[in-house]
UniProtKB/TrEMBL annotation, chain A:
PANTHER family in alphabetical order: ABC TRANSPORTER ATP-BINDING PROTEIN (PTHR30482:SF17), HIGH-AFFINITY BRANCHED-CHAIN AMINO ACID TRANSPORT SYSTEM PERMEASE (PTHR30482)
Membrane topology: Multi-pass membrane protein
Alphabetical UniProt keywords: Cell membrane, Membrane, Transmembrane, Transmembrane helix
Residue ranges of the TM segments: 58-77, 83-105, 112-130, 166-190, 210-231, 251-272, 284-303
GO molecular function, one term: branched-chain amino acid transmembrane transporter activity
Protein name (Swiss-Prot/TrEMBL): Branched-chain amino acid ABC transporter permease
Source species of the chain: Sneathiella chungangensis
Record's subcellular location: Cell membrane
Gene Ontology terms: cellular component: plasma membrane
InterPro entries cross-referenced by the UniProt entry: ABC_transp_permease, LivM-like
Top-level lineage group: Bacteria
UniProtKB/TrEMBL annotation, chain B:
Entry protein name: ATP-binding cassette domain-containing protein
GO CC annotations, alphabetized: plasma membrane
InterPro entries: AAA+_ATPase, ABC_AA/LPS_Transport, ABC_transporter-like_ATP-bd, P-loop_NTPase
Top-level taxon of origin: Bacteria
Keywords on record: ATP-binding, Nucleotide-binding, Transport
Domain ABC transporter, residue spans: 4-232
Lineage start: Bacteria, Pseudomonadati, Pseudomonadota, Alphaproteobacteria, Sneathiellales
Keyword Ribonucleoprotein: no
Amino acid sequence: MRNSLIALLIFAALAAAPPVIGGYWTGQLTGYLVYGLLAISLSLVWGYGGILCFGQAMFFGIGGYIMAVITKGMVLPDITSSYLGLIAAMAGAALFALALGYFLFAGRGISGAYLAIITLAIALVLERLMNNWYGLGGYNGLLNVPPIKLTFFGASFELWDRVPTFYAILIVVAVIFFGTTALLNSAYGLRLTACRTHPDRLASLGYSVLNIRLSVFSLSAAIAGLAGALFVTLDGFASPTLIGFTLSTEALIWVAIGGKEMLLAAFLGAILTRTAESWLSEIFGDYWILILGIAFMISVVLLPKGLLATPLEKLTEGKRR
Amino acid sequence: MSFLELKSLTKNFGGLCAVDGFSLDIAKGSVNALVGPNGCGKSTLFNLITGTIRPDSGEVLFAGVNITGRPPHEIARLGIGRKFQVPAIFDELTVRENLIVASRKQNDRTAQADILAQIHLEDQADTLAGELAHGQKQWLEIGLLLAQAPALILLDEPTAGMTAPETRATAELIHRINRDRGLTVLVIEHDMGFIEHLACPVHVMSKGKILKSGNFSEIRNDADVKALYFGTAEETVDA
Ligand SMILES: Nc1ncnc2c1ncn2[C@@H]1O[C@H](COP(=O)(O)OP(=O)(O)OP(=O)(O)O)[C@@H](O)[C@H]1O
Ligand SMILES: [Mg+2]
């Protein structure tokens, strides 16, 4: 209960931010919200599902490319609906995760460091693939991805301006955040914890561990795919960097710094790290990476639950979910 | 008619024959005990029944259905529950949440309250399972089986690490669930006092197969069984 209250306050503060921080920062913050969504997806699969995915950006990138090809009319010239693009991006990423997950988890299943290495390798392969796939722009990617077009009751409205875009994205992120939180508070959330900590026990109670892992892996991929789809509409282009190594590891750092076992902490980890980066990299230049590295090490060594999750848990009286 | 039928089950680990042509019939609604020295293959036998490992040869028939080689979750759904040798509960969940997970299909609060009472954990319902005392963890695991509501339960050393009164309470609990819920029970134990208290057919296992079957006093006084336990009898009594 208090958990949701704090989350509500944070979303209210985000909603109140644009007039205070001005146009430029509103634009920046919109991007950070999308990264926050990617962090939510990683927290779900890693912190709750116990699946350490080092290539989470692959789902982000897949979502981004699907959104780009649909809204640019590269699939069907007459059907360029943003809604369709978003749904297809989520479905595409989820289906890819389902196939990949089956390969990873069936039988004895791969876990721990092996899983991390394999998912990282797959992200690298996909990045290479996109670099060389000339039909999808190759190294340069796809340019001129249109902004989100909202259509209701026949009227349509393109999100070109910063402030309406910010609110549209904030609403999507809030819906996903509170939806995922509700899911984690249900019996499904208990099963995830059970599956993460004692899969053999769960199987001998009649649950298919494979199905639970596939469900959380694809759900997380769908969220990451949605984030990627939103992202390309902000920047106006989809490029191979969305899919690969750098973004995958950055997402891991945000989530580890924030706290992987707490959706809210992971989300804020992404936003705060990104904000800190744009300030501190102006002051310290490339030394910013050092500061980030130190923060990362502190969180891993001293506060393994996360720099943000630890104080947030205090606020919520140590309630775990 | 036998409810659980094990037909010459065999399992080798490398050169070691852990289960060696093991056969046993268990009647519906009965309680049976399986005893034997450390490493004689008791837990491996359970693993073969629950699908955790596949036998090299032999068959497992449950309620007339051949379940050999099926995955553990399917076997569990058919109605076999298992307590592991090392307490296997969900440490990061509370006692109540453990029971919610175990009752896979219906989340019935009165049934859960009833189970909490039976396993003497009413006051710990909201305690994290990882924080329970050892004996309480063993009970919680039995509680998970009750919530799962199987027809056959396999208990692997349910009283290990328990005090004498806890051990007695456990024997009573097993009697009660056998009587009230009609559950068929197969229990592995080292504690002879507990086996005596159960007053049920006992099967002595040695080197992967059954050496002797009989009631407690027959087994206790059997020359072969004495020879098997010679020198290890002390340690098995208080294990
Ligand atoms: N997965 C495995 N791989 C290799 N060897 C195994 C495996 N599982 C069991 N064993 C071996 O098989 C033999 C039987 O082991 P098992 O655990 O079934 O004995 P047990 O009768 O349950 O003994 P205890 O009373 O100590 O629990 C032992 O020698 C053990 O080392
Ligand atoms: Mg054993």
